[in-house]
Amino acid sequence: MKKHDTHTDTMPSVDLTNCDREPIHLLGNVQAYGCLISTSADLMVNHLSANCAALLGLEPEGAVGQRLADLLPSQTVHDLRTKLQISSSGGAAISRLFGYDVQGDGTLFDVSIHASGQSYIFEFEKKVDGEDRDDLALVQPLIARVNNRDNVLSAAQEAATALQMMSGFDRVMVYRFAADGSGEVIAERHAAGMEPFLGLRYPASDIPKQARELYKRSTLRLIADVDGDVSPIVPEKNPHGEPLDLSLAVTRAVSPIHLEYLRNMGVAASMSVSILKDGELWGLFACHHRSARYVDYERRTAIELFAQLFSYELERKLEASIRDEERDARALHDRLMVRLSAGGDLIDSFEIIADELSQIVASDGVAVFSEGRYTARGAAPTAEEFKPLARFLNTAPTGTIFATNSLIENYPDAEVIGDRVAGLIAVPISRTPRDYIVFFRHEIARSVRWAGNPEKPVEVGPNGVRLTPRKSFEAWTEVVRHTSAPWSESELRAAEALRISLIEIVLKLTDEASADRKAAAEKQELLIAELNHRVRNILNLIQGLVSQSKTGTTTVEAYTKVLDGRIQSLARAHDQLTRQEWAPTALRKLIEVEVNAFLNGQKERLVISGDAPMLAPEAFSTMALVVHELVTNSAKYGALADHSGHVSIDLSIPDDGALLIKWREQGGPPVQAPTRRGFGSTIIERTVPFELNGTVETRFKLTGFEADIMIPSKFVSKDSHEAIERSDADAPVDTKNYTNLSGTVLVLEDNMVIALDASDIITEHGATAVKLASSVDDALEIIANEEISVAVLDVNLGSQTSLPVAQKLDAMKIPFVLATGYGDVENILTEYPKAPVVQKPFTSESLPREIDKALAMVK
Question: Between the chain's N and C termini, which has fewer beta carbons within 10 Å?
Fold first, then answer.
């Protein structure tokens, strides 16, 4: 196949899908109205077009290899060099001179200059219109008329009219690309008696990707005469064997196939101008003329400027349209809030909000599927038909709408609802479970007016076996089955706005508020009482630990070690209670951590037998509270109140999947039933039935307290591979000798008691001095005036965090340890530099251990 230019200049265009895809610079032809000279950086002539002799009086063969100064007057070369310098400094792609006397003989030329690789290309077009005119002065008033139009289509129509006035072409079309690469004529201005092209569509293959890329770089192309002469480039290649790249050349000729295409349409001249939005090709101005028509470079420059300003106006109008849609979405959001704020869910409120929903997206039917319930209005599936469709929708990506105008292409079972539904937009309105509002459109026999049959772009023509232009441009109707009207960008944006409103606001006001109101009275009372009781209980428990830890210890060091271990065990139990990991958690470990705080190493006093249940997060939080109360009551009054009793716990999961817990205490003091129910007993007996719909039975036997607890199966799973882990409380004490501290240590802590405890521990391990700070400013001042060897930073300082201090120490390569009482350390410390973390309450072992890690990190 012969090489040719694959660029297409006007609409309609030719399908070049199967053409040889060779670079644009291989063409090497120049239209007769222009003369082209290529030079190197020192203005040595490398190429000329053969028609330069006619326009500039040059001999192409003899001129190649000469300096430009030998061919043109010195003043012309000086002016061209100056223009090159100015354009290079300003970063302009193309420089222009209008009405310039190149040869000094009074003949005027328009000149275009641009860089092409390592070459400069000079193009000269002879002025054919001697009248005194100011084309650029037309641009502003014409673009003002476009600006006065209130939408994109009317603005495009006004632009087509304006461009016809400026160019004088018989027909000017505004061609808009669709998302699939096809296009449509959305505005047109043509001379009387011409067949209208308005509304015609063109396949995506009519403008190949290569041509689209060139349209973004070279925004205006003119074919003055489809039968005009073209001149070859002399020589064809430079001394390096490379052809000249003419991608940005304004006089470059086009493919002979495209010229044949235009002739078949009865077009003798054409011009195309790019319409860009956000740097991408949004559309084209396509101009046709029934006879040869040359538009000089100065007027084409004004047309380019008009197209650029139209692109800005287009973007402004599209943005205004988006703002209007956002305003409408906010108004809809407000109306929905008013309608739904009285309570109830979407199903119950469907008839109230259905009219509002129909204003968002034009549809033939709308449905709501929420919490397994379904209701619909208009052309929509039945409840039974929607269930498998809902399962299909659940496979779509979460957190976004799903839209299609041909459902059967994605969901083959859609054939059973094809008489009512061909396309849909599904708007997810929850995360778990997946609920939806769905807009439906039925099938239409959508008539698409194609410019010729897009199924037949290939035939044998005068240029050989290659792609040739289609011979007929009569409207060809393609009937599309199983397809609905397409969803517009504005409708998709409106659906997305609806999704955000319903998920983040409306559902919060309905689903959550409705559930909260039902349990508010009971839960509020329970939470207030729980808070008061928990604080008192913790204080009593600490007091008990302090007194009980004296038993069996003969020295202050031993007593401190035992007490520290028990306090740490209690802290770990509360970490488990408050941590939010949203994953099944082992119940055995929870029980061990709570009970072992009281055993003082006597593990035989706790016996756990049976299965290894895993509890869902909501059940785990509830059971953490119940187990804590069971252990606390046992430590106060039951088997763990002295040194003789023991607790046995049997965990079993029968065939129905529920969890049965048998709590048995023996060997402790005699048990008597309480004369009144305290809050602890209330938590044990009421929380499981209230929160989990389980059961609890308690018995106050003289020989020991007993409790039978049942947790429903939906909260229980069994890990057959679970190893019964030893709790942290049972772990052997780390007796490692940590690195002795030296120098000055900074402690940033807003609680004075805790700061003094830390100071004592650090001093005992060898620190020369400890500087205490209670605020970020104090700490930064100490860092500025003291040589700090290591630091301990409390994360939460009340109204501040220690992040600025941590960042300063990290920049100075000073090691530091972060101290926190929060259980969820990873989420809290995401912004902090990497450092060891010590959990509060820290001890004489845990704090030096983490300081040792910090020192090791900077070695």
Answer: C
Intervals of CATH 3.30.450.270 along the chain:
341-443+481-516
Residue 197 Cα to chain centre, angstroms: 40
Per-residue model confidence as pLDDT tens digits over 717-751 = 886 544 344 334 344 444 455 556 788 999 999 88
Residue 303: exposed, middle, or buried by beta-carbon count in 10 A (0-12, 13-18, 19+)?
A: buried
Q: How many CB atoms lie within 10 A of CB 702?
A: 8
In the chain, which residues fall in CATH 3.30.565.10?
549-730
| Contact criterion met (CB below 8 Å) for 761 and 784 | no
CATH 3.40.50.2300 fits 744-857, yes or no: yes
Question: In 3D, which of 407, 454, 470 has the Cα closest to residue 260?
Answer: 470
In the chain, the amino acid numbered 461 is G
Nearest to 288 by CA among 202, 227, 223, 232: 223
Rg (CA), the chain: 42
CA distances from 508 to 340, 345, 409, 501 (A): 10, 10, 35, 10
According to the model, what pLDDT value does residue 723 have? 39
How wide is the angle at C-alpha 718 spanned by C-alphas 712 and 724, nearest 5°? Answer: 125
Going by their DSSP bridges, the two strands 613-615 and 585-586 should be labelled as antiparallel
Q: Quick one: fold of 341-443+481-516?
A: Beta-Lactamase (3.30.450)
What's the whole-model pTM score? 0.53
List strand residue ranges (DSSP E) for 686-808, in order.
695-701, 704-711, 716-718, 744-748, 769-773, 788-794
Per-residue pLDDT tens over the stretch 575-608: 654 554 556 778 888 888 777 766 666 778 889 9
What tokens appear for 318 in the block? 């599209």
C-alpha to C-alpha distance for 630 and 546, rounded to whole angstroms: 20
Strands in 423-428's sheet, in edge-to-edge order, are 373-378, 365-370, 436-441, 423-428, 402-404
Q: pLDDT digits over 796-822, tens only?
A: 887 788 999 999 999 999 999 999 877
Three-state SS for 840? coil
What SS3 state is found at 710? Answer: strand
Chain center to CA of 131: 56
The pLDDT, as a whole number, for residue 102 is 93
Residue 764: helix, strand or coil by DSSP? Answer: helix
Q: Collapse the DSSP code of 608 into the 3-class scheme (helix H, G, I; strand E, B; otherwise coil) and give the result.
A: strand
Q: Which CATH architecture has domain 549-730?
A: 2-Layer Sandwich (3.30)
Q: Mark the ranges of the chain whose per-residue pLDDT is less than 70.
A: 1-28, 60-61, 88-92, 129-132, 333, 337, 339-345, 431-433, 445-480, 504-554, 558-559, 561-583, 597-601, 621, 677-680, 719-740, 823-828, 859
- Between strands 119-126 and 365-370, the pairing is unpaired
* Residue (of 56, 36, 7, 222) closest to 113 by Cα position: 36
Query: Cα 361 from chain centroid?
Result: 24
Dump the DSSP string for 387-427: HHHHHHHTTSPTTS-EEES-HHHH-GGGGGGTTT-SEEEEE
Q: Which residue spans within 417-504 are E strands per DSSP? A: 423-428, 436-441, 446-451, 475-480
Question: What are the structure tokens assigned to 636, written together?
Answer: 């106060």
- Residue 258 CA to residue 208 CA, distance in Å, equals 13
Residue 295 is classified by DSSP as -
Task: Please name the residues in contact with 596: beta carbons below 8 A apart, sequence gap of 6 or more.
Answer: 569, 603, 606, 727, 729, 730
646: which 2 tokens?
Answer: 């023991």
Q: Give the distance between the most distant pair of CA atoms in the chain.
A: 127
Q: Which of 180, 151, 159, 497 is nearest to 318 (CA)?
A: 151
